[in-house]
Design goal:
The protein is mainly α. Helix content is 72%, strand content 0%.
């Protein structure tokens, strides 16, 4: 029985490792996308939203 549980823990460790790697690469990719030079205009427009008085342009 303990051999069966040891195998399950080993597989769970690999699964958790791959999941961590997936989330880490996703976060790095998202950060690169957000701060890419091609997104600069969109980010500057979004930064002005709190200062907008609500008038339509």
């Amino acid at each position: 029985m303990s051999q069966l549980l040891h195998g399950a823990e080993s597989n769970l460790g690999w699964l958790m490792g791959w999941t961590t790697l997936l989330f880490f690469t996703s976060m790095v990719g998202w950060t690169v996308w957000a701060f890419a030079p091609s997104r600069r205009a969109a980010m500057e427009a979004a930064s002005r939203i709190p200062l907008d008085d609500g008038e339509e342009r």
